[in-house]
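Quick one:
INPUT:
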């Protein structure tokens, strides 16, 4: 048999590609497995060929397709409602369909759903005793079997029968537009092709699998123009402002179905949103929230105030703070990724903090969170060293179907679904398994991620911050070689940057090491490209910055002593200077190193000294001297 040429020629021009594929192959396939975007609406040409396109649900689209091939009716079965004839009786076409169905299937009224009845009716349609062209749609076919690989006896018998029926179906000739023999197709509607027993479709040329894709940009643009009628715009082509609004709507709807665009339009109408403001309605639909912190009028003022407050909090990093605030301003204005053709769905901001440990990377992340959301604890932190195993990625997005904990979802996706307006900190990103890093490609490019339960989570209103210590050390040069120049010894890792280097040199070396890690070690240059110029390099703290950090942390200790024990603690000049020299001697350990040294050289001996004496409220305690004996620090108290 051959595919009849009229179908491949002018028939069904302008219909969705999967419909044209089905229509073109009715002469060679008796069954079809349709999966993917089943519950969407689809663009179809007008009935009379004049006027705008139509948006049809899948059932209506399938009916018009087989009707154009001479079908008299379509039977639809689902496990809940049982058998129904489409179209329904009530008009001339519906009444004619009911009569043809009764001739072929008998009376269907009040028949309870069962596999036995379904088997009988499938045979009647696929092997008709009369030359009646029809189709049989099995909706929600994924729910027929408890599991496709472990069938119960009745389920196994049913699918065996369907496999045999696919080979024994009889083509039907009818007068009309397509007089050549065509099968009465059985159409399985499944969520995934694997929801049916694999042996039903494997090596079976009579069964064709067709995936229904999500709408592409062109479909969304045409749909946006149709939906513009709800706002009183009947001719978008002659209205440049309306055309631009429709194109923006289509771009913002990336990842949505056409049915979702219809729902967005309804939502916009309910909220009295104009056509030009539909992107806000898309955001509300995607995120499920009405309040948008990014649109608050005071946010710009808070960021401007942050230019003074953040440097006081993150000490000694003027370049990193300035670049971070620039990226934050870009996020507030909605200009992140503005150079791209489609940028609306990308995260609000992406930052990659790199540089020596203890220089303020995490502190700056907290400062950004406090600036935008008013609470530094609103950020969500993931220690990526916990995701070094290949399978640990399930913690982020949830386990696949069939695995333990599948219903719980993932830590990352659940958190973003609960509150999409977040700062997310991925600490020490280089320690994560490369396959886990791949999950960030879709987040950074498209601003969305699908969890283990199949739900899509949107990151378009989030700020993502990655931190890394890459660049501190790099692989050393080979020490020696065998005869012929073959290396057999290596210097291991050597320090790449040291205190005292200029910031430009530190930045150049760290960015080079980060690029080498992603391209040569991880073989993920595409991920590096997603970060772009958002790599923010932190410098070693200077002597001046170290002294400021020391003063700040020392003041915190005195404040804590006063709050906990109502003591007034002072340290005399010489003792304080000695303590300062001990705590600021190793600048490569950063502010965290200063804090650790203060704890070791001051807090521990202070606690030892105070523990041995009776504390009186409002007592003045003065440290007159500090000394080290045998590795133990002692304080002289007055």
């Amino acid at each position: 048999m051959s595919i009849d040429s009229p179908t491949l020629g002018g028939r069904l021009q302008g219909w969705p590609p999967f419909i044209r594929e089905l229509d073109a192959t009715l002469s060679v396939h008796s069954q079809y497995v349709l999966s993917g975007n089943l519950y969407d609406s689809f663009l179809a040409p007008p009935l009379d060929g004049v006027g705008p396109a139509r948006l049809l649900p899948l059932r209506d689209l399938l009916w018009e397709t087989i009707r154009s091939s001479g079908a008299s009716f379509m039977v639809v079965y689902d496990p809940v409602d049982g058998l129904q004839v489409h179209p329904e009786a009530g008009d001339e076409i519906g009444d004619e369909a009911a009569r043809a169905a009764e001739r072929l299937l008998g009376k269907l009224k009040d028949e309870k759903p069962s596999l036995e009845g379904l088997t009988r009716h499938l045979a009647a349609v696929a092997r008709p005793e009369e030359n009646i062209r029809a189709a049989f749609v099995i909706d929600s076919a994924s729910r027929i079997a408890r599991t496709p690989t472990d069938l119960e006896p009745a389920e196994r018998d049913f699918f065996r029968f369907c496999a045999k029926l696919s080979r024994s179906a009889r083509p039907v000739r009818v007068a009309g537009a397509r007089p050549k023999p065509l099968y009465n197709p059985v159409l399985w509607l499944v969520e995934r092709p694997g929801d049916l027993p694999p042996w039903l479709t494997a090596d079976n040329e009579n069964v064709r699998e067709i995936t229904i894709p999500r709408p592409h940009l062109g479909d969304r643009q045409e749909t946006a123009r149709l939906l513009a009628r709800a706002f009183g715009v009947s001719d978008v082509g002659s209205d440049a402002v309306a055309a631009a609004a429709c194109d923006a709507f289509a771009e913002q709807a990336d990842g949505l179905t056409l049915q979702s665009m219809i729902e967005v339009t309804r939502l916009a109408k309910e909220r009295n949103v104009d056509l030009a403001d539909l992107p806000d309605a898309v955001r509300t639909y995607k995120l499920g929230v009405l309040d948008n912190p990014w649109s608050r009028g005071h946010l710009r003022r808070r960021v401007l105030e942050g230019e003074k407050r953040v440097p006081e909090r993150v000490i000694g990093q003027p370049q990193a703070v300035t670049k971070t605030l620039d990226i934050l301003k870009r996020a507030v204005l909605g200009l992140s990724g503005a150079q791209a053709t489609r940028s609306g769905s990308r995260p609000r901001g992406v930052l990659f903090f790199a540089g020596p440990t203890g220089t303020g990377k995490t502190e700056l992340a907290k400062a950004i969170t406090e600036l935008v959301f008013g609470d530094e604890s609103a950020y969500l932190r993931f220690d990526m060293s916990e995701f070094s195993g290949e399978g640990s990625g399930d913690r982020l997005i949830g386990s696949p179907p069939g695995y333990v904990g599948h219903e719980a979802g993932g830590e990352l996706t659940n958190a973003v679904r609960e509150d999409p307006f977040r700062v997310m900190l991925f600490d020490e990103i280089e320690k994560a398994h490369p396959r886990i890093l791949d999950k960030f490609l879709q987040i950074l490019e498209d601003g969305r991620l699908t969890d283990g339960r199949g739900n899509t989570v949107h990151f378009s209103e989030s700020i993502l911050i990655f931190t890394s210590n890459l660049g501190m050390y790099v692989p050393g040069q080979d020490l020696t070689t065998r005869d012929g120049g073959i290396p057999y010894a290596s210097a291991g890792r050597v320090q790449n940057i040291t205190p005292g280097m200029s910031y430009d040199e530190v930045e150049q070396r760290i960015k080079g090491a980060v690029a080498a890690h992603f391209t040569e070690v991880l073989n993920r240059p595409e991920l590096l490209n997603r970060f772009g110029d958002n790599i923010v390099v932190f410098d070693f703290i200077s002597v001046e910055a170290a002294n400021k950090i020391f003063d700040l942390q020392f003041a915190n200790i005195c404040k804590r002593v006063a709050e906990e024990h109502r003591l007034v603690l002072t340290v005399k000049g010489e003792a304080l200077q000695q303590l300062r020299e001990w705590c600021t001697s190793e600048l490569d350990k950063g502010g965290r190193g200063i804090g650790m040294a203060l704890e070791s050289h001051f807090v521990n001996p202070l606690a030892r000294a105070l523990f041995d004496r009776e504390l009186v409220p409002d007592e003045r305690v003065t440290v007159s001297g500090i000394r080290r004996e045998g590795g133990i620090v002692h304080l002289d108290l007055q």
